[in-house]
Design brief:
The structure is a single chain. The chain is mostly helical. The protein has three helices and no strands. The longest helix has 15 residues. The protein starts with a helix and ends in a 10-residue tail after the last helix.
Length: 64
């Protein structure tokens, strides 16, 4: 994944819960500026944590 793709995915995950809210455009611009200034490693770390919270790994099957 390229750095640009990682930043775009992070921005999408951060904005998703806010869709439909009043004032989203101004908030989106602020988030975009903050994400674009982040170092690549920090972006990937945030992206990994957000993905883990949105899409938790399934629990392993326990055989009885």
């Amino acid at each position: 994944m390229t750095n640009t793709t990682a930043k775009a995915q992070l921005l999408d995950l951060l904005i998703e819960p806010l869709k439909g809210c009043k004032g989203l455009y101004a908030h989106r611009q602020n988030l975009m500026q903050r994400v674009m200034r982040m170092p690549d490693l920090e972006v990937r770390d945030h992206l990994d944590r957000l993905k883990a919270s949105h899409f938790p790994a399934p629990e392993p099957c326990r055989a009885k």
